[in-house]
UniProtKB/TrEMBL annotation:
Domain of life: Bacteria
Biochemical pathway: Cell wall biogenesis; peptidoglycan biosynthesis
Lineage: Bacteria, Pseudomonadati, Pseudomonadota, Alphaproteobacteria, Sphingomonadales
Record's protein name: peptidoglycan glycosyltransferase
Catalytic EC class: transferase
Transmembrane regions listed in the UniProt entry: 71-94
Amino acid sequence: MPAGFYPLYESMQPVDLDDEDDVLPRPRASATPDFDAWDAKLAGIDEALEVEEKRRLRWWQRDYWRERSKLWWTGRGIMAALALFVALIGWLAITAPLSKSLEPIAPPQVTLLASDGTPIARQGAVVEAPVKLADLPAHVPQAFIAIEDRRFYSHWGIDPRGIARALWTGYGGGSTITQQLAKFTFLTPEQSLSRKAREALIAFWLEGWLTKDEILERYLSNAYFGDNQYGLRAASLHYFYRQPENLKPEQAAMLAGLLQAPSRYAPTKHYDKAKARMELVIGAMVEEGYLSQAQARALPDPRIDVRQRDDNVPTGTYFADWALPLAREGLEASYSRQVLTTTLDSRLQSLASRVVARAPLGGAQVALVAMRPNGEVVAMVGGRDYGKSPFNRVTQARRQPGSTFKIFVYLAALEAGWEPDDTIPNTPITQGSYRPKNARERYSEQITLKDAFSQSSNVAAVRLLQAVGSDKVIRTARSLGITAPMAEGDPSLALGTSSMTLMELTAAYAGIAANEFPVEPHAFARDDQSWWEWLTTRKDSLSRRDHEAMETMLRAAINRGTGRNAVLPIANYGKTGTTQDYRDALFVGYAGDLVVGVWVGNDDNTPMKGVTGGSTPARIWRDFMRGALKLEAGPKPAPSTSPDPEGPVQPLDLEEGATIPVGENGAVLRVEGNGLTLSQEGVPVEVRLSEDGLVVQPAPSSSPTPP
């Protein structure tokens, strides 16, 4: 074979000379074949096979990752970091919005007023307007920076040197001002590594989005200074009766010293500890060059000037504990104090407290709630003594309503076509597993619905429920606003075995009184409905026939039935209720423009000694109604060993800081510490009488607003 000649398969085929069109030119053998080109083509084939083999590998196979280049890994790492950064920013935007650092960390103080303007309760933190760093004297922020975060203006939210110094010296917590702002603004007080990690992360974020001055302003405006004072302005006014823009260096140093342990260092209770802490702050200011040694030695001890700026209003009552959460739902987060007028009637509240106080309860508890037919709550007594037990038996206790529930059974019967004069058997039930009995074993062959309701016949109520259907009774109760669980098909339902609150039950009676239901009890006056609200709000009512029939039976129950002890000289409607073994006794009814529910029982659900709904609860209801509707003079206040906590309180004891007007020339007598101080507007001195004798001293500034 000649050199350079490589026969192919096609060259071995015979040539058809007759078919000239199909004859292809014979390839010529190269005298110098290109072996390098052939090698390159073969290598390309190998590479293509290798790429195809990699393409067919799956991500969970080890060879899939083994052959990746460094450049590939670098690019993917950068992309992953960017994705993580974007996710982190989104997470922070949701869980820690910047606007949250502008809100007070504690709910601001809310004062509740009775409908006549009488203060009835005040709750919440004392929070004042935020401070502006540009308006503060230089020594104010310097005091906080010196003791809390000396490198505040040079770090990026976390100070490794500060942490190391705290670990080495034992002073300071190592947390920067930015971290502290992140902690009390965005995070919970739990101690965990995850919380510390979030704190550091949010600190970096705050440093990236806010200036140093903005961070310091938000920190000073939100920090806790003890005595329920949040923010520098509130603390400055509380401890020194001075605006923070006018704080002296020693005052600023004392306030800065409180932040480590506000309750332990509060100067109103622990002045010596606050002073020692203040000296530590002043020493730090000297070390940082904010004060000279001579200036530090010349600073006097600050004088605490706590003034009674508010009336002696209780922090809690049964009504306030129920109303305040409702109030805060509609309040926007702000630093301003809120004063809200409620539906509570101070006269009716005082009357309810006196009536309950004089009732012969023995060792039992009591609850009373009075509302208008539209649901405005005007009086509430949730127990015998709020100071001993703030548990509200009007809104929190779920007890069996007893025979007061029968109103739903009879109302369902009326809606089904029954009449008050229709009769039903009143004989003992001798079949089935449930065999209720009438009180005192009083039975008869037949009884009218009106008489059965007024005499509170148990067997008649059970038979009526079975005749009407428990599903219809439950539907009627639901339409009147009862949300308590009710078992369909249970005959004991007719006797009030489903537990519910006194508020819920009384609101249902209010719906019958107004003939518009359901009625929602509320503590704040509501605006009149617009035509659109009236059109879209679902309200039910009884037919005129059914409503008159129901009121006929309610009136019979109170005038000649089990509720005779509650009878009034005007049209009155009500129903008694007594549960098994005298565990609960109730009376719920209405007259005039008031709907009132009364409950008596023991918190541990133990039986009482023969107390029924027609005895003590009916008498409490009657006495309250007579005074409320001014049918006769209400009961006189009974002697009490402690101030009544139920409503507008007239304090009997003078607390520290209380003031007593003396004459009409502006003179006041103030109780302070272990003595009395007499002062008068416009007089530059005041007279103090204490164990040390009589002392004449300069009077503090008498300006109407803090300096």
